[in-house]
Amino acid sequence: MSNRLVEDASDDNYVMDILDITFTPAWPRLGHQVRWEMDSYLKESVDLTQVTCRVIMKIGPLKILDKRYILPDLLASMGTRLSGDVHPPAGPWKQTWDLQIPPAVPVARYQIHLRAHTADGKNFLALNIPVAFHHRWATANDHIGSPNRPSFGRDLSRAL
Known about the structure:
Blueprint: E1 7-8, E2 16-24, E3 33-42, E4 52-59, E5 62-70, H1 71-77, E6 91-100, E7 108-117, E8 123-135, E9 148-151, H2 156-159
Antiparallel strand pairs: 1-8, 2-3, 3-6, 4-5, 4-7, 7-8, 8-9
């Protein structure tokens, strides 16, 4: 995967092989959108309206969120929706979502774990996403628009 901000934690037993995930901008800003482009391969046809997602969000060892969604509801909570064929056949599958980043998030380093399963219980995908939101002083030359700015992982220069 070209974006080291997202770790593919799946193995050969998963229905989807993720080939690439790209974020634009690479450093999403609080209160703004980030484009998520995913290039993958489906090993079988999937009813995306029935994919169940479990989202776990942690700060260090402390779990602050553990919630289950169906994929359409998860996407709706991020300001977007499924597009294209919601029952894609086996083969190449590309998807682009414009996700809305919340405007205010407590300053912390987060670990987001996303696990998804098909309607018949097969492993669909497994992603780990490290995110750090921190305060940053804005200067007259900044075009950030907010003193809060997320960064991913430990060294962004390696992720770009």
